[in-house]
Amino acid sequence: MAGATRTTTHHTARTRSWWGWGWADAHPDDAECTAMGALLPGTLARPLPVPRISDLRIDRPAVEAPRSLSGAVTADPAARAAHAMGKAYRDVVRALHGRPGRIPDLVAHPESDREVADLLEWAGEHGVAVIPFGGGSSVSGGVEYRGDRHRAVLSMDLTAMNRVLEVDVAGRAARIQAGVLGPSLEDQLRPHGLTLRHFPQSFEFSTLGGWLATRAGGHYATVHTHIDDFTQSLRVVTPAGAGTSWRLPASGAGPSPDRLFLGSEGALGVITEAWMRLRERPVHKASAALDFESFAAALEAVRAIAGSDLAPANCRLLDSGEAALSGASQDGSSVLVLGFESADFPVDTRLEQAVGLARAHGGRIGESRDGGRDAVGAWRSAFLRMPYLRDGLARMGAIAETFETAATWDRVPGLIDAVRTEVGAAALKATGHPALVNCRLTHVYPDGAAPYFTVLAAGRPDDQVAVWDHLKEVAGEVLHRHRATITHHHAVGRDHRPGYDLQRPEPFALALRAAKGALDPHGILNPGVLVDLVDLVD
Amino acid sequence: MAGATRTTTHHTARTRSWWGWGWADAHPDDAECTAMGALLPGTLARPLPVPRISDLRIDRPAVEAPRSLSGAVTADPAARAAHAMGKAYRDVVRALHGRPGRIPDLVAHPESDREVADLLEWAGEHGVAVIPFGGGSSVSGGVEYRGDRHRAVLSMDLTAMNRVLEVDVAGRAARIQAGVLGPSLEDQLRPHGLTLRHFPQSFEFSTLGGWLATRAGGHYATVHTHIDDFTQSLRVVTPAGAGTSWRLPASGAGPSPDRLFLGSEGALGVITEAWMRLRERPVHKASAALDFESFAAALEAVRAIAGSDLAPANCRLLDSGEAALSGASQDGSSVLVLGFESADFPVDTRLEQAVGLARAHGGRIGESRDGGRDAVGAWRSAFLRMPYLRDGLARMGAIAETFETAATWDRVPGLIDAVRTEVGAAALKATGHPALVNCRLTHVYPDGAAPYFTVLAAGRPDDQVAVWDHLKEVAGEVLHRHRATITHHHAVGRDHRPGYDLQRPEPFALALRAAKGALDPHGILNPGVLVDLVDLVD
To answer: Does the beta carbon of B226 lie under 8 angstroms from any beta carbon of chain A?
Structure first.
């Protein structure tokens, strides 16, 4: 079909991996996988083979798009397989074992709001489930259909809507189509001297619409941590009609319309474009890394900095395990990475003041650095490489995944201890081998912080998914007991529904179900995300 | 009834005015009113008399509360009259003329969530409209029933729920009952060294719950301008049940539950308590006032400051009329008042940098100040006195009211010009006398600003309300044409519904109506606010 040619053109010869993170050519090779596996006793002697789409059984589509939409829709098996799941560890492992999630019947690449609306109308008439799909980097089951197996499924890939449509240079804002991937977005803004500065780990492989629909966390560690804060106006196409909020710097007119769709994860409508608040590129930068013997003291330092008016752009605390893993420190220290930036004024004084607060809590500059090695740079390159290494470890049969949360400061130390202890014990019991459970703080607030955990453990290929699901369940129980959110910036998807349902206040649940019923009366949009279809039938 | 004794005890002998702003003893006396009127040609020679509750016709209540709730409910005529309306100019004038809005049948002062829920249950069973009421300072018809005159109405005054229940000093947060008035809230926080620092003009006469339900704008001119940003968790009692969101510094789990109730203006539920993010009291402060010959240049200066990382606490720009009115300047200059504060570090450098940006756009420090007179202080005392003066002018038959909005920077200069020109022309036409239409910016953003307008004109007692409503309609048309929000921080209430309905995106309207139907199935909560009851019946 003609639609198959609509997949976004990257001006590069690189190919996206259908089964794993990012670029196919960036994955560790068999030798590297084997070397990594050797560091984790109990893993395989050689890696599981890279899976091939041609080995999958892909049924003929259960539905066919009408002729009027055929230009936007493809039934190409490779496109369908690449849209079956997100990129969580459990997704990667299922692909490695040739058992991916439900492969959608069709993939659409709409190029306009009109096509989005037409697709929704057709899907509503035929009861076809529609999964909005940006870069496909969901790590919480956000783009995978898990409902009635007899229902037809269409993956709606927005990446053909990938242009910056309008730039208000003086007002530092731009109207941007939702399907644009991070690098292309920044490429299109650069000639105007502007930047969104939203750099999640998935930057290369996720879209503006995905960031908005999942309330993604980005570049800034303090103050404006989520994409929400950079949103000036949204355009949303729903089965019940489309609408655009006004471009406003702020408003007090009723509940924020945009805040209902931010985080709606494709369950209430399809975000097709947004006016985003931009920044001038920073010209003043200053950063430092401090070592702490005591993680508890480092937490206090971070709390002091987060509670001040200093507003660092970067304020990431790595515990000793995380610091060792990323190469930021090898002597058992925890490492605090601080960064300030501004387009307007030098930030050295602010850095000095933040370093002063860190020193007052026992921080020491740079002592653990070997030679000229820069902890900031080490951290950054390790950060972008991590998902590839995770997939390499998955090929060795290992457990290798992350999850994140946020809690108020009174909860943070106990929460981190409990996750380490209880997830570690559960991993030992399940695998027979000790696990690494590391922690870093990615975003910090005057009233709390967002801990991000990495779990590394041996595993067996026959039960990798089951063991990880068990560990995640244990983690979810710890989070719930400490009243820590089930997700700070990875979205609810399907994987986090149990925790989400427990934490969501009942009046909001009632309101959300009612809103879903009004906007998506046939229950076609991302079924099972945020709201159960059975709730709508009640 | 016993409930009559439940009105909040202020430890003061001062009495609240039932018909006008604030304290009864703070109103200008007849001589002052006459002197003010003399400045506005065309007003009365002597003021309208202060209205008395005893002159009102107050019918017997159409309903009686059940015995189980009688302790919480009063039918006292004075209490009922004082809960009939908010404190907009049009409310004050109607009271002056002995024609207040619908006087509620009953006033309740619940002391617990249980009583709130019981009152809602009783009201639902009997079809009684319930108007949640905080300090009663609404300036947009938010606390006045305007529906079917045969329907019984209960004003639910939350001010008996006025305590700080819990303080997390280390986490800088407190759990606070919604009915607490500003001064009592700060009094209760002071022993802990903490402050909410939310100081709207109505601070003495408005409650935390009112601020939350109306998305009030507060102390800070930049970054965290609305109460929304200081909200950690909300407790809401709705006719369909109660719920509390978790205390979280941030979360990405679905759309923000709190953001649906922030700005819900009592139409979705009653906010009974909240965990609020607090601050340590600032110890470092620095401020300056700059004069600008050109208002346009001053706007550019403000845009530069708002777009920088300096984040002043105060950044208020007064046009020449507003500067003259408040005593900040008498030479035709516009005046920019800048203020910085911090609990952590000296802010002199930041002030210097902001002043530098202002100077680069033609700002001059202090030249128009007469002697040691401080524009900052002059502005502050005039600010708190203004609503009293407004009421004094109302007694002279004058038109004297304000309204505010927000728009992106590309719209701001044209919007301000159009409001001045078109509202001024409409006032001249309606009254036969020239009007003052002044403007200040109260809150500023990298992408826009919140202009706040003051309108002063002669008027005639027989058509003060009609003339003002006409001017407000003209203003609303200008705002709509310039895509400026119908309110930045004064809420929608009933007065702003036409503008609100035009600006609200249709998918959000559908979702909001559905949410209202789910949470308030009998349509008892603040009928006519945000959503029409007829919408629910459809």
So the answer is: yes
CATH number at residue A198: 3.30.465.10
Residue range(s) defining the domain that contains residue A526: 499-537
Residues A153 and A274 in one domain: yes
| Record: contact B309-A311, CB cut-off 8 A | yes
User: Which tens digit of pLDDT belongs to each residue from B430-481?
Assistant: 999 999 999 999 999 999 999 999 999 998 888 999 999 999 999 999 999 9
Are the C-beta atoms of A482 and A407 separated by less than 8 Å? yes
Residues A276 and A288 in one domain: no
- Using a CB-CB cut-off of 8 Å, the residues of chain B touching A263 are 252-256
Task: Look at residue B469 in the predicted model and tell me its pLDDT.
Answer: 97
3-state SS string over A313-373? CEEEEECHHHHHHHCCCCCCCEEEEEEEEECCCCCHHHHHHHHHHHHHCCCEECCCCCCCC
* Residues A299, A275 share a domain: no
Residue type, B311: A
Nearest to A244 among B226, B496, B505 (CB): B505
Reference A59, options A4, A100, A15; nearest CA is A100
Examine residue B456 and state whether it is found in any structural domain, yes or no: no
CATH number at residue A417: 3.40.462.40
- Residue A11's pLDDT is 52
Residues of B within 8 A of A490 (CB-CB) are 252
The verdict on A534 touching B (C-beta cutoff 8 Å) is no
Q: What is the CATH number of the domain that holds B97?
A: 3.30.43.10
Does ipTM top 0.90?
A: yes
Q: What is the DSSP string of A123-145?
A: HHHHT-EEEEESSS--SSSTT--
Q: Is A202 a member of any domain?
A: yes
CB interface of A with B, residues 54-93, below 8 Å? none
In a shared domain, residues A130 and A48: yes
CA distance B328 to chain A (A): 27
Chain B neighbors of A283, CB-CB under 8 A: none
Residue of A nearest to B445 (CA): A249
At residue B333, the 3 state secondary structure works out as coil
Q: Is a pLDDT exceeding 80 seen at residue B426?
A: yes
Among all residues of chain A, which has the CA nearest to that of B513? A515
Q: Is residue A386 part of a domain?
A: yes
Query: What is the C-alpha to C-alpha distance for residues B380 and B385, in angstroms, rounded to an integer?
Result: 9
Clarify whether residues A44 and A135 are in a common domain. yes
pLDDT of residue A373 exceeding 70, the answer is no
What global pTM score does this model have?
0.96
**Nearby residues of A463 by Cβ (< 8 Å), 6 or more positions away:** none
Smallest Cα distance from A281 to chain B, Å: 12
d(CA B239, CA B478): 38
User: Of B106, B131, B157, which residue sits at a domain end?
Assistant: B157
Q: Do A276 and A344 have their domain in common?
A: no
Q: Which of B508, B510, B519, B529 is the best mutation test for A, with the most CBs of A within 10 A?
A: B508
Please state the domain count of chain A: 3
Residues of A in contact with B263 (CB under 8 A): 252-256
Rounded to a whole number of angstroms, the distance from the CA of A83 to the nearest CA of chain B is 22
Q: A429 and A292: one domain?
A: yes
Comparing CB atoms, the residue among A264, A342, A449 nearest residue B249 is: A449
Of B157, B173, B191, which residue constitutes the final position of a domain?
B157
**CB < 8 Å to B445, chain A:** 249-250
Mean pLDDT of chain A: 93
Note whether residue A404 is domain-resident.
Answer: yes
* Cβ-count burial B335-349 (b if 16+ within 10 Å, e if not): bbbbbbbbebbebee
Query: Is the CB of B171 inside 8 Å of chain A's CB atoms?
Result: yes
- Sheet containing strand A73-74, edge to edge, reads A73-74, A106-108, A153-157, A129-133
Same domain as A258, residue A290 = no
Query: Measured between CB atoms, does A332 come within 8 Å of chain B?
Result: no
Q: Is A225 on the interface with B (CB under 8 A)?
A: yes
